[in-house]
Amino acid sequence: MSAAENQMETQAHHEKVNYINVRTTLLSWLVTLDHKRIGILYLLTVSFFFLIGGLAASLVRMELVSPKGDLLESDTYNKMFTTHGVMMIFFFLIPSIPAVFGNFLLPLMIGARDVAFPRLNLLSWYMVAGGGLLALAALIMGGVDTGWTFYTPYSSSFAKTQVALTVVGIFIAGFGSIFTGINFLVTIHKMRAPGMTWFRLPLFVWAMYATSLIMVLGTPVVAITLLLVAVERLLGLGIFDPARGGDPILFQHLFWFYSHPAVYIMILPSMGVVSEVISAFSKRRIFAYHFVAFSSLAIAIIGFLVWGHHMFSTGQSMYLGVVFSFITFLVAVPSAIKVFNWLTTLYKGRIELTAPMMYGLGFIGLFTIGGVTGLHLAAMATNVHLTDTYFVVAHFHYVMVGGAIMGYMAALHFWWPKMTGRMYPESWAKLSAMIIFIGFNVTFMPQFILGYMGMPRRYHSYNEEWQVLNVLSTAGSSVMGLGYILPLGYLLWSLKYGKIAPQNPWNARGLEWEIVDAIPHPHNFETIPIVTQEAYDYEHWHPNKPAQQPVIVGGGKS
Amino acid sequence: MWNFPLVPPTAAEEALHISWLYWVITGMAIFFVVAVCAAALVLVVRYRASNENVNRDNPPESDMRLEMTWTLMPLVLALVIFFWAAKLYADIYTPRDDALEIIAIGKQWMWHVQHSNGVRENNELHIPVGRPIKVTVISQDVIHAFSLPAFRVKRDAVPGRYNSMVFTPTKTGKFHLLCTEYCGTKHSEMIGSVYVMEPDDYQKWLESGGKGTDSSSAPMSLEDQGKQIFTQLGCNTCHGAAGAAVRCPPLEGIYEKPIELANGQKVIADAEYMRESILNPAAKIVKGYDNLMPAYQGVASEDQIIKIIAYIKSLKDAKPAEASK
Ligand SMILES: [Cu+2]
Ligand SMILES: [Cu+2]
After folding, report:
1. pTM of the model
2. ipTM (interface pTM)
């Protein structure tokens, strides 16, 4: 019996051992190999980077209240939108759902005690957190002003800011996400409990699988590309700078080869969450499970073949452009399939409008808007007019904030009881879901109009006729900001004062809800469960005698 | 402040076509969004847990016909939009021979525009109404983008490559000229105006050297300026010089003709090729000659190169004055 288990025994006299109270020192968290604890570490890390990215965004929006660039210097403004993009994309959105909830849930959902490589898992966290800190250091040492896209030759030969340091930070975090991807793929292939066949997997697991594929196949390309930018800066090699014999468009090809699929790294996990949430609060099996599962894979694969739609105006060959445009239209189809299947899941359901469900439905609405405005951008002629304007900004915020972050908030509320053992205050949560939804639309709807009128993105000052819509947008963003601060408050509050969570507060199906413990045991399951049912088997569920006896043996010893 | 537009002016033929496309897609988009939101709303209300008065028997698990419907329906719509948009895209990005040629050079942080008769202007673009205009853009430093929202066209100004676009203004007036590719500190100040004028006014404007007045200070044409630069930079000491020390190919009559290279490849001697031949001659050696031409990288500016090319172009129909030995 190990020392750790000894300690568990002593504590168990007072309360049930769970992954949180099993050891409490800071060190025990920093060297933990428990996937659930690593998930919590990620939660803290990405929340921190979200805060920084959010602060930068609010400075940007404040500057844009007036058409003259009078609040910030141009250079400061440029650094702020770059900080916003870099922090939000590389250090919040990409790790958010996969690293936080993927880590916490994947082994629980498939009936495993941990991920395949727990040490690698911890290393990944150090890489993401360390990479983020490097990027933060770059910010403190003067900042970066290239935009999160790091277009060459500006980034490689002209910018006088901390490009190299930032890029190295992203490189390191990138390898963290590659390792996470490998870890998840192996875990899903090798560690499913007996009886957990592929088509009994919860759809969140399918989404994680597709996401991991993209991480493993795509991230190395962008990591090396960004490193080449650093090399060109530091050693003066001619890779992307035409004045030194390089090709600036090559950078864009390499960058978007990853960064378009990266959009799916951000959105697929949210789609997985939404599938879970919609099913749990409709008490229905997801309609057409197979279609939803395979559409994730289809998106991941087709998503690798569309990167050129970012480059219709760069002078890439017209034939190439036509192919990219065509495939981009194709990728719209699996996304549409998902939306229709979620809607049909509601049909004849037993719908409870809890906060996570509100976020989930919000996701469907906002993601649909993000998706259909993608058609304007997939269409080559309208793309030329709209590219690099606020239309694009609005479009990808609908996908990445309206989609990815709504999914993240849904997940946070849905699994909060399992993660912390406490219930969040429901009415506060509903209120903030509503505030975020309204604030979000007021922020970004005007930007579609601004974009169609031609207002370019990344503009520190702008033409006066665009002011009214910009003021509206900033007003909306303050409302949305409030909507994000509220959860920070009430979730922290709930840790101490929230109602103690029952073992399965939502009467949801899925192994993570069916373990006997309210808060999972460090080893998740005492004996590995044997799965005999489909995912989302709500057929034997009745509204009046819910709380089906836990069918799965948990790990609690006391 | 309360007088603000919600759509840009539509001041070119292409702009009209593209805005049609835009509104058709927008119409479809609104239809889908409203349908999805309405469906969600109705279902959530009808099947709320507290409502026991609905039939929940035999909820469907999946339905192949439904799946096919909502796979094929978006697919077909998508294909229609795809073809339509690709056609309009080809319209604006395929060079046309009947177009008035204008060259714009982007540099941090201004637009430098060259008219063929040698008139130059900064952060302004004067063009006549009613005829196709071809704007060729290139950058001298980082990537910029030449954006004209009223005409619904833009083109990236990429260092090292000539990109072009064509549009046909239909309205006179003053419109925005913007840089839409982030290019550093003063990206948002890299803006200006487009003036679309009646053809006569434009002609007067050109002849007055871009001053709009009748002062007869007409500038030298692009090709004449190019000829001067050709001498200044010493090109003429080899090309076309009788008894030059170096044997080199004649430049007369080569413009847009196929050139055979030393490595056996054939290339068309277009502007892109000329530019490379001047800046980095070693990249492509003409068959039968040696790599003896000095590289003008860092010596000849984009502006000068454009003029030299205009000069070489003017020799399109000329015969080599005297075969170089
Ligand atoms: Cu993309
Ligand atoms: Cu610019």
Report:
1. 0.91
2. 0.90
Residue ranges covered by each domain of chain B: 1-45+64-219, 222-313
Query: Distance between CA atoms of A152 and A246, rounded to whole angstroms?
Result: 10
**Residue A214: which domain range?**
31-555
Task: List the CATH number of the domain containing A113.
Answer: 1.20.210.10
Domain tally for chain A? 1
Mutation pick from B156, B186, B284 vs chain A, by most beta carbons of A within 10 Å, is: B156
Kind of pairing, strands B120-122 and B124-128? unpaired
Closest CA to A286 of A340, A232, A361, A231: A340
Q: Which chain B positions have a beta carbon within 8 Å of A76's beta carbon?
A: none
Judging contacts by C-beta atoms under 8 Å, the chain A residues touching residue B191 are 463
By the 8 A CB rule, do A411 and A275 touch? no
Q: Which of B48, B86, B152 sits opposite A385 (nearest CB)?
A: B152
B87-113 pLDDT tens trace: 999 999 998 889 999 999 999 999 999
Chain B residues near residue A389 by CB distance under 8 angstroms: 149, 180
A320 reaches B (C-beta below 8 A): no
Topology annotation, domain B1-45+64-219: Immunoglobulin-like (2.60.40)
Interface test with B, best of A150, A459, A544 (most B CBs within 10 A): A459
Domain assignment of residue A21, yes or no: no
CA–CA distance, A350 with B44 (Å, rounded to integer)? 9
* Structural class in CATH, domain B222-313: mainly alpha
Closest to A414 measured CA to CA, from A285, A512, A310, A313: A512
